Predict the 3D structure of the following.
Amino acid sequence: MNKKIAILNGDGIGPEVTAQALKVLNAVAATFKHEFEYTEALIGAAAIDQTGSALPDETVAVCLKSDAVLFGAVGDPKYDHDPSAKVRPEQGILGIRKALELFANIRPVTTYPSLQHLSPLKAKHLEGVDFIIFRELTGGIYFGKKQTSEDGTVASDECSYAKEEIERIAHLSFQYARKRKKKLTLVDKANVLDTSRLWRRVVQQLATHYSDVTVDYMFVDNAAMQLILNPGQFDVILTENMFGDIISDEASVLSGSLGMLPSASVGNKTALFEPIHGSYPQAAGKDVANPIGSILSVAMMLDYFGLAEEAGLVRDAVSWTLYNNFVTKDIDMVNFYFTSTIGDLISDYVSGKIPGTVKKDNIELRKSTII
Ligand code: IPM
Ligand code: MG
């Protein structure tokens, strides 16, 4: 298979985690005789520094010509502390989501037995936790009209949704629910918000076409609590843009680290794959960030290409590293391995270079020097 992939490294740890994901993609290409052609393009603070824009036209053009986009992260503290900045790195990711009409952001939340001790929850609450968040990505308060009064003392962000915007992601989430445990939970705030009441009406109507799927409705404040109290109750969660942003960060702690979670954003044009974490500037360039969110995003990309066996092998490789305690610093502060070592191990596993019994001592040599 031949595929063109746009690479948007972005800021902070973006380039280094993406580099590991590319190692894994290259190992998949070599093992299964595929050809992946990469084109890098600028986004975020890196793009502002070079072009003055967080999303240069050239980047959009490269993405539109590609079969998929692999995205790293955007964000830089020098903009976070300046609320009056006119150009911001985040405009890069928001802009590309809009330009590619990526209306559905799919965030699977998986737990691994070997990481359960890292979760703030007791192990008994984590058994069998495996759900997917469908976050609407191009509407709601993120993209509504924004206003600040001339004297700068009053500001507003409008939240609006049209029936069609809800229907298209709801259909997708129902189709996924059908292939899973056939349970869908709409998370909203229908006791207060008109937009949420519209979401409920639309989902209730659609539910009649998916009578094999059980639908329940949950207010977002309660959902935030239920995710911690009893996460095993969820299968597919469907929600609007900002609620999805918030509850997916919350859900990521169930897996042990924010660095573990991948995502796929799909819509009307090229699909985009990205870890859910941010640019983590404190760790940038230190080779300590967790590349697994990015590597599992590549697995989602392979699934999207219809390469299920390849995707499965990447996921097996990730599970193998975790099971053998080859983990980054976010997971084990003392016995940790570098970002690049984890990338090497996962790609070696994909290439079939890891023997049944691994000589840990050889890998130990590439371990952190502080232990
Ligand atoms: C995410 C991020 C983005 C969002 C930021 C970087 C704009 O938090 O992808 O979850 O809020 O959507
Ligand atoms: Mg977020």
Notes: The mean pLDDT is 94. The longest strand covers residues 2-10. The first helix runs from residue 14 to 32. The chain has two domains: 1-105+258-371, 120-255.
